[in-house]
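In response to the reviewer comment on reproducibility (Comment 2.3), we provide here a single inverse folding case reported in full, input and output, so that an independent group could reproduce the run without further information from us. The structure tokens appear first.
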């Protein structure tokens, strides 16, 4: 099921939180939604779900406009907010039964059982929510978002505050869910996006600044940048080394190791080898450093400062 955002703007008083944002999610995509704090991500997600209304522009889900009056469209959406709102005095199954009432579902017991199985809550289903770990509370929130079998799932920082084991479990869960649903989720964990997303949308200061696959963004932004980590067998005169290389930067790691960066079309590795031969040095290690999504994110958002 597709989601289309067209020229959405939102003001909080005189502050413009969103500035004519447009992008589209295709059916079955798992899309990472990135941006610094205050970029407008949560506001955008709330508008997509109908929790907030845009001051201008529109959101369409499967061709139908999202609005406070269109209650039917919400049956197609699952939403996990950034601050997972749970009734901690309720038991897990009790809370999920309560959630089925939002959608007036038939076969409530079957839907609860399916959501519990999907989110791995089987051993926790008879416990009070307040007694659960943060990871399992996130699972309860996901179960609530999935209870009515929505075609579109909106997740606002679902892995914040989780330990490494919990993070991998929730990440795996999101990956499995995305096989049957269109998923948009925001996060600050770049490795998470690189690991599971087919596409990335990046916002900054209320504007859309990038949209594409991880590889396209990395290659498009960083293709002219080379980074080579090199270790020599002896102390190096980095001033002399810099004179032998194209314009760029040398980051000293220790007396015989440095990270060389350049935007030149020339391959740095033969130049470093020649430098070593001509100065009586031996290269103990040379490694070309690959650009990460974090590099791209920093470059993009710093350009917009």
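Designed residues, in position order:
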């Amino acid at each position: 099921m597709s989601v289309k955002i067209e020229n959405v703007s939102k003001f909080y008083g005189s502050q413009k939180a969103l500035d004519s944002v447009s992008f589209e999610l295709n059916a079955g995509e798992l899309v990472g939604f990135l941006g610094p704090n205050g970029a407008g991500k949560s506001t955008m997600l709330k508008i997509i779900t109908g929790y907030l209304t845009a001051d201008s522009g529109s959101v369409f889900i499967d061709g139908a406009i999202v609005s406070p009056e269109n209650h039917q469209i919400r049956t197609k959406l699952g939403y996990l907010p950034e601050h997972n709102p749970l009734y901690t005095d309720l038991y897990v199954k009790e809370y999920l039964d309560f959630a089925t009432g939002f959608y007036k579902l038939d076969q409530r017991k079957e839907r609860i059982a399916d959501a519990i199985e999907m989110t791995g809550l089987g051993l926790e289903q008879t416990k009070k929510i307040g007694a659960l770990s943060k990871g399992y509370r996130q699972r309860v929130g996901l179960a609530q978002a999935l209870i009515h079998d929505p075609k579109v799932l909106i997740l606002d920082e679902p892995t914040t505050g989780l330990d490494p084991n919990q993070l991998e479990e929730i990440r795996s869960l999101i990956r499995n869910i995305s096989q049957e649903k269109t998923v948009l989720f925001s996060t600050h964990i770049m490795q998470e996006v690189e690991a599971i997303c087919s596409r990335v949308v990046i916002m900054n200061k209320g504007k859309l600044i990038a949209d594409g696959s991880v590889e396209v963004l990395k290659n498009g932004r960083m293709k002219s940048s080379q980074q080579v980590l090199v270790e020599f067998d002896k102390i190096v005169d980095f001033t002399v080394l810099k004179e032998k290389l194209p314009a760029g930067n040398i980051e000293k790691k220790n007396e015989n190791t440095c990270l060389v960066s350049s935007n030149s079309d020339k391959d740095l590795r033969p130049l470093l080898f020649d430098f070593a031969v001509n100065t009586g040095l031996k290269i103990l290690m040379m490694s070309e450093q690959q650009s990460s999504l974090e590099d791209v994110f920093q470059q993009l958002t710093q350009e917009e400062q």
